[in-house]
Automatic annotation (TrEMBL):
Phylogenetic lineage: Archaea, Methanobacteriati, Methanobacteriota, Stenosarchaea group, Halobacteria
Keyword Metal-binding tagged: no
Compositional bias segments (type: Basic and acidic residues): 1-17
UniProt function note: Protects DNA against thermal denaturation and modulates transcription.
Matching Pfam families: MC1 (PF05854)
Protein name: Non-histone chromosomal MC1 family protein
Spans annotated as Disordered: 1-56, 73-103
Keyword tags: DNA-binding
Entry superkingdom: Archaea
Length: 103
């Protein structure tokens, strides 16, 4: 497991600049994947509608822009006992990086 000092915090931003949640990860993509799993899941990956995810690293003026989508699927056969039968999976695609004038 990675030490906590390797983790970075990314704030999920709305289009008006309000930051609603914070996701941690070593990379912006890892945080974006966590954020994507919070979206309303579709019944399959093909049916999922991408939504824009904007993540700003805490202490920085860079905003990482992703398209993210989520879907539900059956858990694997070798799942642990605590895992539900249906799980939410997510995926993201990086659209670019924007720079803010001020935070």
């Amino acid at each position: 497991m990675a030490p906590d000092n390797d983790k970075r915090n990314f704030a999920l931003r709305k289009t008006d600049g309000e930051e609603t949640s914070v996701f941690s990860g070593r990379t912006p993509r890892q945080a974006a994947l966590k954020a994507a799993r919070r979206l309303d899941p579709a019944s399959s990956e093909d049916d999922a509608d991408p939504e824009e995810l904007r993540l700003r690293e805490k202490g920085e003026k860079k905003v990482h822009v992703y398209e993210g989508w989520a879907w539900e699927e059956n858990a694997p056969d070798d799942k642990p006992g605590w895992m539900p039968e249906e799980i939410t999976k997510g995926n993201v695609s990086k659209e670019g990086v924007e720079h803010l004038d001020e935070i």
